[in-house]
Amino acid sequence: MRLAEALIKRKELFNTLSSLIERIGEEAVIPEDETPSETAAELLEEYDGLVSQLDDLIGRINKTNNKTKLTETKTLSDAIIKRDMLKLKHNAYESILNNIAYSSRKRVKKDEVKYLSTLSVPGIRKALDNIAKEIRELNVSLQATNWAVELE
After folding, report:
1. CA-CA distances (angstroms) from residue 4 to 49, 87, 143?
2. Which of 67, 85, 120 is the last residue of a domain?
3. What pLDDT score was predicted for residue 105?
4. I need a surface site. Which of 15, 22, 70, 116 has the fewest CB within 10 A?
5. Are 14 and 80 found together in one domain?
6. Which domain holds residue 120?
């Protein structure tokens, strides 16, 4: 199985587990005169089995990410960490821009205090564009490698 396929399977397992939780909740308590359409105990057993599968799959994915080189010096895990930090930075810069935009529009009347940005809005926008580009390029490298690598 390719790493990319394992990542798809992991997402499917998470979705199935989430669905099972809802179904277990619906069947765990029923009116005394009704028969459940499925038993909560069987669903819980299925849930536990899928958690075990997910545990194994995530372990194999992590092992593969730690062993697979994206470049001579960087593993897939290193690249994933880098991408996560870029996303964190991108979200922070977007939040800062939104705050500047909101604060600069708070003034309704001319006699109210005017708020000015202490940061360069064009500079932050340029940084946002550069970060977004870096994230896209990293995602392309990660996805290409994910389809090329066999799961450990």
Report:
1. 22, 21, 7
2. 67
3. 65
4. 116
5. no
6. 70-152
